[in-house]
Amino acid sequence: MKIDLLDTLREKNPIAFNISNFVTVQDVANGINALGASPIMSEEQNEAEAMVKMANSITINLGAFTEQQLNQIETVMTFANQYHKPIVVDPVAVGAVQYRLERCNELLAQKQVAVIRGNIGEVAALAGVDWNAKGIDAGEGSSDPVETAKKLANKYHCVVVASGKTDIITNGEAVIRVFNESDLFKLYVGSGDMLSSTIGCFVGVEEDYFEAAQTAVVVFDVAGEVVAKSMSKPLAGSFGPQLIDELHLIDVKTVEKYANFE
Amino acid sequence: MKIDLLDTLREKNPIAFNISNFVTVQDVANGINALGASPIMSEEQNEAEAMVKMANSITINLGAFTEQQLNQIETVMTFANQYHKPIVVDPVAVGAVQYRLERCNELLAQKQVAVIRGNIGEVAALAGVDWNAKGIDAGEGSSDPVETAKKLANKYHCVVVASGKTDIITNGEAVIRVFNESDLFKLYVGSGDMLSSTIGCFVGVEEDYFEAAQTAVVVFDVAGEVVAKSMSKPLAGSFGPQLIDELHLIDVKTVEKYANFE
Amino acid sequence: MKIDLLDTLREKNPIAFNISNFVTVQDVANGINALGASPIMSEEQNEAEAMVKMANSITINLGAFTEQQLNQIETVMTFANQYHKPIVVDPVAVGAVQYRLERCNELLAQKQVAVIRGNIGEVAALAGVDWNAKGIDAGEGSSDPVETAKKLANKYHCVVVASGKTDIITNGEAVIRVFNESDLFKLYVGSGDMLSSTIGCFVGVEEDYFEAAQTAVVVFDVAGEVVAKSMSKPLAGSFGPQLIDELHLIDVKTVEKYANFE
Question: Which family does the UniProt entry place this protein in (chains A, B, C) (predicted)?
């Protein structure tokens, strides 16, 4: 695993264009800014091409879109494919809401994305595997998570990150499992969105998206683990600011020391 | 007062659908997630029915809506009434802006809601009682707050929570006053919105909305008081994260110890 | 410099109407509320006139607008000019996106504003001076920042605040430079938006906008410096909440003690 991509990210300071979820946008912007990227957000079609051209990557969070925003999302994805800028997609709640699942599958069928990052309920829904998602939460299912993630990666020819207690990263063949975890991630609603946007930062500086996704997941998970270990009790509200603190402070050496994957 | 509804909430982990105020949505989502509910947000009409069906309750914050969002709000309220899901309404600034007052009264006249939660200026405006509200703040008036809240409860056949230095909860006949308070609530713009959404969580697990609203107010107020007491000076910015910390940490015993109501 | 305008602000508690950037709106609302103003936000045209009439000032953040929001922004600016309410404009990323630059120049050509606050890349773009902006960041250029800011002030007959390592405030003739700084401002995406809205608060209580802008900048910069000095390492995520803490705690004496300008 190329953990020193973290240094590359900070040297290159990539512009990370985010079509964001309005629920978590502030923390996401601060998180990736603290990490070392330069976030920019937009909801306007007329600047879509300019945004894509200046960006090193595009992260599209489908956490709370309207039909109108969907038009802008399609436009941005079209330009991203045209200008060969990698796209990360976060398919929030597609496991729970049929409308979201349909729109998301339509987008993924038409455009080429670099990485899909969701919880296992969302990954299963897109892969067409039975799973009982619960709202924005993963819920429970009986299928094998690794096979489910691989199925989705092969369906859309992209890297898939299925995050949860263990994070699974696959390009459809090879699989990396990351075991760094903290219960605090579930207590903080920005965790998933911030992880997706962190992957967006790394695919902006590394063309091997499978490598980029691995580094992003390990950096993010270790940062969260470091924060959680420093707390004597679970501080659900303080976790967010302290995670952003750590995304700035963490270095390659710390990530290498704590990284737990196979 | 059924303070152990807090345990029920955490056991049932209700899905709390929030049509939120974009100003405070991130803290509201984190607050109710920390408390023990599962928040989900949406602004799209096409998924309104699916959202209502999966949700245990709906909280509608009228803090910053547009005409377009109003259509979605009406659709959501219609489905909520159809599927018998309780609605909590937060009528932000209806005391200061005639347009908001009119739209809000129209909604309340057409749909059945479980609880209205506002400051006394907002409650007075909806009740048709003279009051000088100031922007998003309560302002000052000479009418009796308890009678004003009862008038509104009877007008729309629902529970009314008029929050302020003393919080008043009424079903139009019975009245509970909660005295737990902190000046920090006024320094934190998310306080009112988060209280409304907390009430939303409790009406999702308790069919007696008057009981649910009481528990919600006491849990929320005690949590804020505990945080405020732990500070040696008023930390307006740190209060938000620490309130979210406490909404997760607080238990029935602590609420019972500090609860101050009659 | 009239540093005691801070006391005036807290006595008068002005209503600060903000058309905000959805990325940072929560922190901006909390920041100006903590400082001593009463924030109110709206995106709806139908309440534009009521909002402007009740407000003491209007801050318009062009950080992430859509064509639709632009209609509302124009309406608000028209009413603000009609009712003689001062407008502060924050032209986010006009140095990087041609579409934003054009829309912003159109607005500024048609309406009279009190203050423009941007980084030097944004100020240069509006002034028509060559500069290499980088996304939302200032980037680098070879022109003289003071002359660039003066040029813009004379172009639109308003006060210009060009913020950066040194903050420049000019009415087109006189120039004040503020040297209070902290690297943490760059690590926190809300810094610029919050500074613009802080200026909005002060122009709501002081008709001499050049004086109001100076006080706003010095109060804000000193608050940030006080927070930064209290940290043993740069906490990118904790800086936001602590800056809001300090905006409430800071007093005229502290600002006078640390203010560093000429």
Answer: Belongs to the Thz kinase family.
| Distance to chain C for B139, nearest Cα, Å | 12
CATH number of the domain encompassing residue A76: 3.40.1190.20
- Name the binding residues of C: 41, 117, 163, 190
ipTM value of the model?
Answer: 0.94
Residue in C24, C137, C233 closest to A26 by CB: C24
pLDDT tens digits for chain C (262 residues)?
999 999 999 999 999 999 998 899 999 999 999 999 999 999 889 999 999 999 999 999 998 788 888 999 999 999 999 999 999 999 988 988 899 999 999 999 999 999 999 999 999 999 999 887 666 676 777 789 999 999 999 999 999 999 989 999 999 999 999 999 999 999 999 999 999 999 999 999 999 999 999 999 999 999 999 999 999 999 999 999 999 999 999 999 999 999 999 9
- State the SS3 of chain C: CCCCHHHHHHHHCCEEEEECCCCCHHHHHHHHHHHCCEEEECCCHHHHHHHHHHCCEEEEECCCCCHHHHHHHHHHHHHHHHCCCCEEEECCCCCCCHHHHHHHHHHHHHCCCCEEEEEHHHHHHHHCCCCEEECCEEEECCCCHHHHHHHHHHHHCCEEEEECCCEEEECCCCEEEECCCCCHHHHCCCHHHHHHHHHHHHHCCCCCHHHHHHHHHHHHHHHHHHHHHCCCCCCCCCHHHHHHHHHHHCCHHHHHHHCCEC
pTM for this prediction? 0.96
Within 8 A of A43 by CB-CB distance, chain C residues are 64, 66
Total domain count, chain B: 1
